Amino acid sequence: KAFAAELAAQNGFRAMLTLVLAGFFWLESGWNYGDMMLLVLAPYCALVATMGNPAAGAWQFLKGTMYAVPAAFVCAFGILPHLDGLPLLVITLALFWLPGIYATTLPRHMLAGLAYLVGFNTLAAADNPMHYNLHDFLNYSVAWIAATAFAVLSFQLLLPRNPERDIERLRHRVRNETLALLRGKSPDAVVWQQRQQHRIAQLGAMLKSSPQRIAAELAPALAAIHVGREVLRIKKTLASRRLPPTPHTVAQRGMVRLAATAGSSSRTIRHARRTARQLAGMAERYPQQRQDIQKTMAAFADIFWLIQRHAHYFNALPAQERLHE
Asked: If you count Cβ atoms within 10 Å of the first and of the last residue's Cβ in the chain, which end, N or C, has fewer?
């Protein structure tokens, strides 16, 4: 919550400052089309702020707009005056849409393609009847370019975000929420999982521009979600009292030891493995509750395997936790 609130405050202050500076430019210049610049700049600031790398996203919007202006000029003043009828209009517009549509299918150029399509359709302004006004077109084009340029400068110079720092904070937030479960925190299971999945989605969005890092960065975070789900499953089983007395005591003691060692991977691994082995040896003694015992044993075994595989990630010292909170 603190991380989200901090980002929201930064984004809101940045957007306000950007619009104030752009409005000051409009008023001081006496430009009659400055209102169009602000109308484009405001939603672009909102859209870019939600991206993993806002500065790169704003630059992609500027690139798409730069392609849209000449394309719209050629279409509106070079081709449309010579057309007659809806079929030719649709074919012509489709030919100009295809590059943008294709760009939106490529992750690296998706934002540029989106900006191209929005800018082209707005500037070409196909209408019935069609109005050709070169003066308005040029001013609107400058307004679109100026708006996207202001967005680039805003996210590069005004409260610039550090993507690497944000990635680390999200990774450690996912881990710390799982360690909190191990230590005894009892949140609503559905809400906990939804929040963790939302953080994973944010992390994936931030790493979208670096596909070679996605697997390495997301794997431990996904492991943390699976560990948390297993912990919630064990707690639910213990609360339901479905286990026989002896396996119940073993599983409960195992959870107490995991809570005491959360953040120390080697000790957590040892206790999870020991508890899984003890429960495995008891399954045959209780045929009627064998399935419940085996599920609890499998949960402890999964915790052991996942933390062992990502031991460095789960090995969180208190000082490190304070640093990344």
From this structure: N
- Cα–Cα dist 26/21, whole Å: 9
- Predicted model pTM: 0.65
- CA dihedral (211, 215, 217, 218) in degrees, to 10, reads 110
Coil/strand/helix, residue 210: coil
Label residues 275-304 b or e (16+ Cβ within 10 Å = b).
bbebbeebbeebeebeebbeebbebbbbbb
Let me know if 242 is exposed, middle or buried by CB neighbors in 10 A (0-12, 13-18, 19+).
middle
CA dist 74 → 10, 85, 88, 89 (Å): 40, 19, 15, 14
Query: Can you tell me whether residue 303 is helix, strand or coil?
Result: helix
Contact 114, 58 (CB under 8 A): no
**Where is pLDDT greater, at 36 or 2?**
36
For residue 209, is pLDDT > 70?
A: no
| Rounded to 5°, angle at Cα 154 from 153 and 159 | 125
| Cα Rg of the chain (Å, integer) | 28
Indicate the Cα dihedral angle 238, 240, 245, 246, nearest 10°.
Answer: -30
- Digit-coded pLDDT (tens) for 288-324: 888 989 999 999 999 999 999 999 999 875 544 434 4
pLDDT of residue 280 exceeding 50, the answer is yes
Place of tokens 């517009």: 93
Other Cβ atoms within 10 Å of 214 Cβ, number: 15
Six-digit token string for 64:
């798409």
CA end-to-end distance (rounded Å), the chain = 10
The closest of 22, 319, 50 to 172, measured between CA atoms, is 319
